[in-house]
Amino acid sequence: MKYKIYNYLTVFFTLSVVMTSCVDNEDLLQVDPNVETSGSFWKTDQDAIEGVNAAYSSLLTDGTYMRSTPLLLDLKGDDTRSNSPWDAMYNVGRFNSNVSNPAIYGWAYETYYQGIYRANQVLKNVPNIDMADKGLKDRVLGQAYFLRGLYLFHAVNLFKNVPVPTDIATFYPQKTQADGWAQVIADFKQAADLLPVTYNNVTGLDAGEKGRATKGAALGYLGKVYLFTKDFNNAKTAFKQVIDLGVYALVSNYRDNFTTTNENNSESLFEVQFSREAGGVDLGWGGAPASGWGKTSARAITYGPRAFGWTDVQPTWALYNDYQIEKTTSGAVDPRLDATMFYNKPGGMQLYGQDFASFYSKSPADLNDLFCRKYQNSDGQFANEYDWRSGINERLLRYADVLLMYAECLNETGDTPGAYTYIQMVRSRVGLPNLATTKPGMTQAQMRDQIAHERFLEFPLEGHRFDDIRRWGWLQDPAKLAWLKSRDAEFNTYTSGREYFPIPQLEMDNNPGTIQNDGY
């Protein structure tokens, strides 16, 4: 039974002010005895655990992985398209988010800083708790550093120049993107030093609990930040440390990474824990979790096929066509195609207990269209996604990603031959032939393009493609940009600077001196 981190904490600092004509100033401030305060909390080991659990809870709201963050990460790539009737969503992939309408991107921004604030609460208060279990204290602090790094990673990656809070204050000035990345690196380094490889061999309140951040997760994200900042040598070192931990392996069935069947598996470095069984059934649209608030994801209904969900996100034909480029060693189509999308497959394809061709037979447009399959509860256990309550965990970092990023680092540091081994580990899982045989002796430039192709087919609809496009500089390369436009018409409306989202207007209003991102 997988462990779910659902012991939430919301600490309020409530001061009741009573105004009379006959009291001293110190009598004006009174603490509500029914509300936890910083003075009554942060006393025990259990408080420390509940405090860090509160920081995890920000991963589950609409601004983060319940819905908004996957949309922000996915929609700008050439693996997805959107014809959503909701303009805020429709415009994300067209690089046209509106400064005056913060829906989706503004919710994400707000929630990242909510998570950072909660992590900072832990980092400020837990060191002062007299804990008998020093190992537990280290693990709690390590998780707080990891979560602060993760939330800040998203803020810097999506919004560029943002505040970088490392303490509890009333004002946080805008920093440069370089400053932001530096703090993310520092947080993941600290987390890696404090976190265990696994919780199976620890003692304390967190013993055996799955879903918590580990050393491997911290090192994996550390390598990712180095890669994003083109520090290939340090990235290579971090990824090799993950590999050398010896605890990660690719699962045999690629699709097991996107269903409830095999969550927290050997391939998963970190995933967001969702569940239909935990908590209530109310939808968590943001803010502090209430008692009836569920711990489920709205990704499935948002990305769901026509008549089974809202179909706000769909795969592109470029993605479908790229899966046809290379056959497996048995002559079959890459099996990741069927794990990624629904389509009118010769011989039939099932979705939600229905035959695709039969179900859409009266709608030629849908019959000849493509729909998302990743992260859908579509194997027959549910009739559709209209209850908005998916329990599928969101896999944020997979071992396959580490292997391909490590291969990229090898290529960028002059070891192009060495990259073949790690690319082939990912290819072999789905039966693709030996790349060293089919494309021997590639140059560094050729290998770059090959790695881009491999990543495109391994990670569609997982929030990686546009990050790759941006960090590779393709938007500034006229030839690459023209190629992207030929594959996905949404790139026709890209303008310089729009690779980042706007700083929300509320942030601009509350923090005078904040400079809006270029292009807005």
From TrEMBL:
Family: Belongs to the SusD family.
InterPro entries, per the entry: SusD-like_N (IPR033985), SusD_RagB_dom (IPR012944), TPR-like_helical_dom_sf (IPR011990)
Protein name (Swiss-Prot/TrEMBL): RagB/SusD family nutrient uptake outer membrane protein
Sequence ranges assigned to domain RagB/SusD in this UniProt record: 267-520
Entries under SUPFAM superfamilies matching the protein: TPR-like (SSF48452)
Primary location class: membrane
Compartments, as annotated in UniProt: Cell outer membrane
Residue intervals of the SusD-like N-terminal domain: 83-227
Pfam family, one: SusD_RagB
Keywords, alphabetical: Cell outer membrane, Membrane, Signal
